[in-house]
Amino acid sequence: MRTSRVFAASIAALALGITACSPGSGGSGGSTASSTEKEGSTGATTVTFRLWDENAAKAYKESFDAFTSHNPDIKVNVEVVPWGQYWEQLPLDIQSGDMADIFWTNSSSFALLADNGNLLDIGEVVGNDHDAWIESTATLYERDGKLWGVPQIWDSIALFYNKSLVEEAGVDPANLTWAPDGGEGDTLLDAAKKLTKDGAGKHAGEDGFNADSRVQFGFNSQADLQAIYLNFLGEAGAQFQVEDGDDFAFDSPQGVAAFQYLVDLVNKHHVAPSAADTNQNGDLARDLFVQGKLALFQSGPYSLPAISENADFEWGIAPMVAGPEGRKSVVHSVAALGNAATQNKDATVKVLKWLASKDGQLALASSGAAIPAVVDAQSEYENFWKEKNVDISEFQKAAEGDTLPAPVGAKVNAGMTAFGDTIKEMFLGTIPVADALKKAQEEGNAAMK
After folding, report:
1. What local confidence, expressed as pLDDT, does residue 405 receive?
2. Does the keyword Transport apply (predicted)?
3. Alpha carbon of 140 to those of 91, 306, 329, 399, 449: distances in Å?
4. Is the dihedral of CA 170, 172, 173, 175 positive or negative?
5. Sign for the pseudo-dihedral over CA of 424, 425, 431, 435
6. Where are the alpha helices (DSSP H) in 368-411?
7. Do residue 18 and residue 126 come from a single domain?
8. Are residues 361 and 443 in the same domain?
9. What does DSSP assign to residue 73?
10. What residues pair up with 186 in beta bridges, in sequence order?
11. N or C: fewer beta carbons within 10 Å in the chain?
């Protein structure tokens, strides 16, 4: 399960003007925001919880069964809205009063809701104590000095590798570094060339190598914000957004150096899949890795289930590729938000407090669905994967090391949607990197005005 898929993939609807919705101002009849069910001679308050992931929904149902055993007067209904419809439906249901009492969101989607008064102040109703959570998962949901979400799950970035392919090529996946233009200190480019083969068995960079007949790729350079280019930007010393603001700031010498390196891996050195393919299918690199056709796959724990279930070869997880400023991983989290228009605030707050606890997140952890945000629940997640002989410690190390924030801001999704096509064209090689970044930054910032 990916906490954000691709940050810019969907949520422009949130930027189209959600009106303020204070408690009691939403719609009435037919609302999913709250209800009371009569069960026999006793009344049970029903709280609704919405998310987009089926696997996580199964874990939450188990969690809420445990909650109800301690709180028999409250029943929690879990509703799944698929990712493709989730972000379009969210603002419509907020406006109509039909939104769930509690719902999932990501860090790029909560700010507009908070600004418009659509959310419960989590610091007020649950508490501001971040000690129970991985700190970075909570700070993502702070705005104007208040906490607006209960952190649920998180992910960071590491490097999946095909053991037989890297051993055959003599590549050490644990010590890969990149430098602008493949300069001093760069080991990734040479490794990726050794790991890329054409149909005749020739490697990238060798005489006679035919990029059009490639049967094996070295590394997944592509327009993937979370797993690839946010990290490369940070490792080059560039910023994605300005400090203490929402404006984009990636059009800089460091930003050009980072993106030029990534684009060259695709179009100059031919060690990564074609952007014509990855632009159309964001999961192509993962699928190629599972098929044994991609040697190095930088991604997050959201890729673990697909790899574990489908790869028929030995694989491992190494630290992410390091850059001029070391390793810098994006840490992103999903949070549970409280609907300010809920008609059953007391029951909703009880459920939010449960979701903020170790007991509330144990089912997520023990099922291997996702890494829980509550620190004390994480050992269950580790144990799940340990039983499958998978060491997930590199993801934890990445989160504890030098990290980068996920995109934030009330209109950041509108901005990322605006520049998305330009970034894809840059990876295709149809627009020079410097020109593309200037254009993309202008497009993104204009869309956020």
Report:
1. 87
2. yes
3. 21, 27, 14, 13, 22
4. negative
5. negative
6. 378-386, 393-400
7. yes
8. no
9. T
10. none
11. C
Average pLDDT over residues 14-27: 32
Same domain, 255 and 111: no
For residue 345, give the CATH number of its domain: 3.40.190.10
Q: Report how many domains make up the chain.
A: 2
Residue carrying structure tokens 């040479």? 190
- Strands, DSSP E only, in 124-231? 142-143, 146-147, 150-155, 158-162, 197-198, 214-219
In Å, how far are 82, 137, 152, 236 from 338, measured between CA atoms?
20, 17, 13, 38
Section 128-148 average pLDDT: 84
Q: Is 198 domain-assigned?
A: yes
Say yes or no: 383 and 324 in one domain: no
Residue 114 structural domain: 11-154+333-395
How, if at all, do strands 35-39 and 42-51 pair? Answer: antiparallel
CA 228 – CA 403 distance, rounded (Å): 14
Residues whose CB is less than 8 angstroms from the CB of residue 373 and which lie 6 or more positions away in sequence, other chains included: 133, 134, 137, 138, 151, 152, 153, 154, 333, 361
Residues 337 and 18 sit within 8 Å (Cβ to Cβ): no
Q: 240-287: per-residue pLDDT in tens?
A: 999 888 999 999 999 999 999 999 999 999 999 999 999 999 999 999
| pTM, 2 dp | 0.86
Q: Which amino acid is at 222?
A: Q
Q: Which residues have a Cβ under 8 Å from the Cβ of 79 and sit 6 or more positions away?
A: 32, 48, 49, 50, 51, 100
Residue 81 in contact with residue 93, Cβ under 8 Å?
Answer: no
